Amino acid sequence: MNFLDTIGEKILDCVLVALGRQLGYLIHYKSNVDNLKTQVEELGEARDRVQHDVDSAKRNVMKIEADVERRLTESDDIIAVAGIILEDDRPAKMTYCNGWCLNLMSRYQVSKRADKAASEAKNLKDEISKIKSVGYRESTQVVETVTSNREYEAFDSRMPAINGVLEALKDHNITRIGIHGMGGIGKTMLVKEVLKRAEKDKLFDKYLFLVVSNDPDLKRIQRDIAEQLDLKLEVESELVRSDQLRKRLKQENRVLIILDDIWKYLDLETLGIFFGDDQKGCKLLLTSRLQNTLRVMGTEKQFPVGVLSDNEAISLFEKIVGDLTGEFKSNMPQIVKECAGLPIAITAVANALKNKKNIYDWKDALNKFKMSCPIKIEGMDEKVYKSIKLSYDFLESEAKLLLSLCSLHPEDYNIRLEDLLNYGVGLDLFHNVHKIEDARYRVHALVGGLKDSCLLLDGNYNGTVKMHDVIRDVAIYIAAEEKHMFTIRTSIELQKLSKREDAVAISLPYTNDDLELPNQFECSKLELLLLFRKKVDFRIPDSFFEGLKDLKVLKLSRIWSGVLPLSLSSLENLQTLCLHGEVQNAIIIGELKNLKALSLSSYNIERLPKEIGQLTHLQLLDLRECSRLKFIPPNMLSSLKRLEELYLPDDVEWEVEVQSTKKINAMVSELDHLSQLTKLRICIENAKILPSAMVFERLESYRINIGKAWLRYRTTETPRILELRTSFQSDYGYKVLFRKCETLVLDHMNGVKNNLYELDSEGFQRLKHLTVRYNDEIQYIFKSMGVLDSIFPRLESITLFNVNNLEQICYSRLPTETFYNLRVVTVSKCCKLESVFSSSMVGCFSHLQEMNIKDCEIMSAIVAIEREEEIEVNSDDNIMFANLRSLKLRNLFKLKGFLSVVDSLVLFNGKVAFPNLEELKIKDMDSMKMIWSNQLIPDCFGKLETMTVSGFTNLKNIVPPNMLRTLRNLKELKIYDCNFLEEVFEIQGTNNVEESRDIAAAELISLKLRNLEKVKHVWSMDPQGIITFAKLRTIEIDGCSCLKSVFPTSVAKALSQLEALEIKNCAMMEEIVAKEEGIETTTLFVFLKLTTLRLYNLPELKSLYPERNISEWPSLESLDIRKCNKLKMFGSNESSMQETNGLGHYANLIEQPLFFVEEDKFPNLERLELDGGDAMNETCGRPSAEFCCNLKCMRLYGNGGKSTMFPNEEAPIARAGVSDFRRLKNIVSFSSTSFHYLMRLEAYGSDVLISLLTPSTARTLMQLRQIGIYGCKRMTEIVANDGSKAEAGDEIAFNNLRDLLLIDLPSLTAFHLGNRTIKFPSLDFVKVKNCPKLKIFCSGVLSTPKLRHAWMEEKPIHKMEGDGHVDLNATIKEYWEAKLETCDQKFAEKTDASNGEKNEHETNDDLERETTSEVGDTQCDGE
């Protein structure tokens, strides 16, 4: 067979294989289609399982993993594609020629696509099945909640304390700060204001706010800390919990922990608040009524908060009550004087009197002040009590009782308004109110009045309130004295009050673990009992409730073992029962025949007891937090005839139809029998089993989910929410729901072919929020039929996601007032949508505030101009979005412009205006060549403050000349990944004298440029005389390869507000400030507020400015310069002088250094990071002593065999200053005080450094807390043995060193080999890893009295208190002895295993080689 035959056979084989594959699509047509159906069905089931988990995670405020969301989206896409294929399968089944000829081409295409789609579906299903976890909890940050300080008043008398605390927070030497003052003076308000300012200045990364109170519950405080740190504490042992918190806190940097309202000494280390040796910028801020408490807590700075001045007190009072005249004005100073300058007292009295228009009320209030007897409450001025009592006396009786109920909750507790409602219903608190919803109205009205009186505060969550601790203290006292309502905090109080016959209400809020309940309460008149969280397995005695015949309200909040006491059934008058926690015998609840309100929150109930059906007086049943509840007994719901409100969890399984007499579950149709039902929360998976429409007609409020849907959209607070994930059915029940609903979510809903308007022919008159997701049928949201006057008149937001067949939102002219209230438009992944609005629609969107459009494949314009033959459009009219505040456009690759002007390729042209736009984010629009037109409407973008531009491939500039003044209010500009961008600000000079005098001042504060590969200029020319950028505070430039300089000279000179400058990864940058044209003189640059300077990977950078200059950096705190090999760091004036040729002309220019040593002083420099670039080797002079005198952290990096350690002044190389690091042996100080404040010293990757410190240098490091040495290959000692003989008593003491880390040091033999005493009085942690030659820590005497924790290679060593300390020399010796013993054992084992195939001499040689190799691998050197 010749070569050609072979080739021919192979070609034939390939052809046959390909032909067979293609024929296979026809042969296996049916099986491929059936397989697609199977795979898609299985994929859908897998997707739904994961979606369920995702919905549950979102309800628990978890962040969903990106890959999970991506796979869910992919599954939706595959299912949608499969639907199209299966739809195309219908014509493929058709026959021709009287049924004899099959449509082979269609079958072939369908089969091929089905085979591919089935494969993709299977692969994705397998991937989805492997998903174990769908989300995670984001880092908790309470600062936004804490700093919502709306009631704060900025008094002059408070400013010294605020400024003092802020300065102390910035002082690295202060770690504990205290604020003290009497109760009601405003300590917490002041602290919140401090936090607000600290957050603004970015002083800390995390804030923990903890309320301690008079009777601190340590476990609650630990739990609060853990929750704010996203840590789960699943153990009860305080010691173990403390250890877990301590370890978790050590992982954080720059944490501020606020301990509010401390009354007595609190052992913070036992609690778990312990940062370890390195504070890492973490601090404590404490408040107390008692200054002595702050002293014993070890605060280093204490700030008093005093009373307001007379003028401040009067000003605060007048602000609340308004302008006063006549006798009101004359009486006011006397009333204010009685408040003694206490803000809480002034606020309480002013709010009580502000609506009193009769002067006699004011005079009566003044008399009450003067006549009232002083009341002594610990830590509270008697004037505070009088003031709050006066405010209380003005309340109506119901408000007084409601305030007393609030006082029964734990301090700083978020009190749910729904709990207050349940208490009120049970106590029959509200006169002439019989319905639950009416009672709710009354609760909200009363709470609003109490908040207006400043007796209640907003809680941390929607639907909650809180009490100021001082208000609570007074309310507790009043409730006990006047209402016989008691709060029990001690076992003594419990013994006394449990036998008090006149007690009406008793609360045990967060009681201590040693408090045990008596077998029986002997309080025959008790009507309300609240028991809050206690220890695990706490058990209520069986006879506990026997003496409480009149009890009407009972709340048990996660306090018991799960077993309800039998005596509970004796509470025949109980009307409200709230159980939160595990319930094992819920059947007993059925005995409480008079219950009106029942709230169960239990994770272990799967089946509701049928006995609940006996509660025929029940008006409210709340089971929404019973997350595992699936089964409700049949006929139970229908027996609750008086039920007005029903709240059910998501996963209840409903009976489909009456199949037999043995029904397992309740039927939804049972709701038909509840004629009083007005409020409902329910999920119904089967859309065919809805109750009758009459149920929906009666409902005033509902959250209803139909189909495989869960209520995931909880952002809206509307009372009527409907979510559908099913096929639309023209049922009257649906029509009622559509007509009444205010939030509508359509998710995977089918049956609406082309017009959403079909769902409600009345035009959705009440709808406020509309969301449509994953729909392949809807063509239009609205297609006018010319009947109604308005459509969606109340709609506030519309969200469209994956509406794949949507062609237009509105097809024709809109009726009057349609979309009139629309505020937010969000459109995403609508693949057939070419525009969002038509030009005729824009007038309907006058209130639009937010617009977010993204991922629409063919969208060519946001606003489309109608064709003239359809609607006449006046070409001179402008399109105005008058109230739009935020505009976000992303991934619109076919977009030609915001307005459809043919071939413009300009995003914003002169026909569209945004006079109030504040935020603009635009990303990934490949076709755009310009953002702005040359002719825009005046002030079109005049209020724009934040702008982000990224992913544009054709833009040449961002801010053209005509936009410089227009965008002068811009505060933040971010530009990323615009590959062809050449300029950011295009500047054009002007010859007009008058125009040049009108210099604009830009408001720009932050400028961030990233990955702009071709940008050559940030400013195309110096903008001097045109616009200034003096307010810039932060500049970050990264990955701008062609940029040679950053600032024109005039811009750099004006940067008086600049705080942070970071430039990195710019390959061609030569100087930071470009050379100024004109007369060559010495240029002065003053960076007055610059605190952070980072220059990284700038290989061509040579200087700050190429000409003669002086720079000042008085505020510089952090300096990081690495991989800048040509940059001259330090130099002298003389060495950098320009030389002349004798004729007055410059003949040569020596490169300018970054810092001049004679002139530069760095009084605030605390952090220094450097490496050993080449320019450092050529630098003239050396840094002055002032350069390092205040350093607290220094990190030094090796670079190509060099190091950045500073040379010994006495060494021969000192004459060259910081010069040849290749010969450097160690680091010493410039003077005896150079590193006096250094707290952290680290060295990385030096190939030449032999030691870190000389003995004389080591003695100056009095504040050093951490040493870390990593990857220094030639280092043999940390403290060099300089050869001098140590005299008697010669010692080196690292008094504050707490952490020592020695990692990857292959040549290290000891910390110090000299015969000196080495003392570490504070050392707590040592880690040694990959140091194979370290055989001894030091040769002299070693003292480590507090060393408790050490790591030797991978072996941890821990000593408990009382077990002594870790002996480093002994530990190292023991480690090597154990290692050598292991090596000897392995050698012996190999010798014994010799099989005799080799002679003894050869075997021993081989074993020796193998063992030697193994010893080397395990760091045994065989010595």
UniProtKB/TrEMBL annotation:
Provide ranges: composition bias, Basic and acidic residues.
1387-1412
Q: Which residues form a coiled coil?
A: 26-67, 218-252
Which family does the similarity line name? Belongs to the disease resistance NB-LRR family.
- Region Disordered: what ranges? 1387-1423
Record protein name field = AAA+ ATPase domain-containing protein
Biological process terms from the Gene Ontology for this record are: defense response
Q: Which InterPro entries match?
A: AAA+_ATPase, Apaf_helical, At4g27190-like_LRR, LRR_dom_sf, LRR_R13L4/SHOC2-like, NB-ARC, P-loop_NTPase, Plant_NBS-LRR
Q: Matching PANTHER family, A to Z?
A: NB-ARC DOMAIN-CONTAINING PROTEIN-RELATED, RPP4C3
Native source species? Castanea mollissima (Chinese chestnut)
Repeat in keyword set = yes
Pfam families, sorted: LRR_14 (PF23598), LRR_RPS2 (PF23247), NB-ARC (PF00931)
Higher taxonomy = Eukaryota, Viridiplantae, Streptophyta, Embryophyta, Tracheophyta
Spell out the Gene3D superfamilies in the cross-references: Helical domain of apoptotic protease-activating factors, P-loop containing nucleotide triphosphate hydrolases, Ribonuclease Inhibitor
The GO molecular function terms of this record are:
ADP binding; ATP binding
Protein keywords? ATP-binding, Coiled coil, Nucleotide-binding, Plant defense, Repeat
Residue ranges of domain AAA+ ATPase in the record: 173-327
Question: Membrane spanning segments where?
Answer: none
